Structure formats: structure tokens, C-alpha cells
Give the backbone structure.
Amino acid sequence: MSIRVQLPNLKIVCALVTMLLLGSVSGWAQNSLLQQGLGLLSSGGETKTGSLSQGEMGDGLKEALRVGTENVVTKLGQADGFNTDEAIHIPLPGQLATVQKALKAAGYSSLVDDLELKLNRAAEQATPKAKALFVDAISAMTIEDAQKILSGPEDSATQYFRKSMGPNLSKEMKPIVDTTLADAGAVQAYDNMMGQYKALPFMPDVKANLSDYVVEKGMDGIFHYVAKEEAAIRTNPAARTTDLLKKVFAQ
């Protein structure tokens, strides 16, 4: 009996979440969609919304999230996805501020710039590995998760992703970042930079964990744009790039 009650409720909640996630920016359209969702609740979930079944509404929620996260991975997981984007560009770690200042004053700016570029390249190369984790997080979404998204703020889906997949994303990105830092020459660039720094007189000892730093900043960049994609799907019809999303929004 519990299974027969739970499945319809999940469809209802998915329908409501989709309506809000894909709602128009105008208050009238959002109220209209919400009223349709409340109609589903009062009818026990047995009706259809126009030509769209409740199963399709649930699929629409997951597709909206899939589209948004795929857009992010595609955007950031390419050359200059991080490096030329002022919002998420990865600077040298704060611990290296002294090194950066000293080397630039000594005429070694190119060493600093080279390392900074390689940190961004490592994040760009590691980002595509997040795709499978987004897919898993979407598939694992429970009725409780959907209810939190429904009643939460405009970035509630982003918060869900960060909480549910953040630890795993960090774990999965770490060895990839280690490898890509080495492949991009960041380790050698760091050693060259620190070698020149230590050759300067009276400089304090400085250390930085480049791998952990790039993982942290890479995740910040990913979720920064997941939040933007979520906002776009909620408010901008042009962001609904699949037939199902357009069909859901048209109801």
C-alpha cells in the first residue's frame, strides 16, 4: 500500500517542481502554473496537464536539470573556460601572494603568469568529469529532495547538487587535477617559480597545495554557473533547448 501511494505523490511533486523551475518570469504565468500544480494535488494526481502526462512532467524536471548541468560542463570544460572568465578565473593561491609580488618586482612576471595559466588549464581539463556525477545526482533525487527544491530559494536545485554530489565531486576531481596539473606542466612551473623565489635574499618560506586549491576553485566555478543555468531555465524560454522542455513550458 505504501508503494502505491508513494509513486503518484512523487509524480505530483516532480510536476510542481518542474512548473516552478520552468516558470515564466511574469507573475501571471507563475501563478497559472502553480494553480495547475495545485489542481494535480487536489485531484489525487490522476489528471493530465493538457497533452502532457504527469510522468512527462517528472521527466521534465530531470531534463531541465540535465540540460543546465550539461551546458555548464560544456562551457567550462574547454580551453579558456576558466582562464578568460573574470567570474571564475583561478588566481594563484593567497599563500603565494608574497611569492607573486617578489618575483614580479624582480622581473619574473612570466613565471607567475605561466603557473596561473596552468592552474586554469587543469580546472578546464578536469571539469568534464563532473558530467557523470550530475547524472547520478539527478537520478538519485528523492521525493524529499524535490520538496526542498519546491519550497526553497531560486538556487535550490544548485544547493541540492552541491550538497549531494559535492564531496564525491571533490574526490573524483582530485586525481584528475593531479594528473592534469602534471600534464599541463604546472608542477614544473611551480618548481621553477619557487626556485627563483628562494634564490632571492631574505624571503620567508611559503608552501601551497596546488591540487587541493584547483579542486576547490574548480568546484566553485562549476556551481557558480549551475546557479546561473538554473535561473535561466526558470525565467528564460530561450534556455529551454529540448522538445520536452518546450512542451512542459507550453502547458
Observations:
- Confidence is low (pLDDT under 50) at residues 1-49.
- The radius of gyration is 23 Å.
- The CA atoms of residues 191 and 211 lie 14 Å apart.
- Residues 59-250 form one domain.
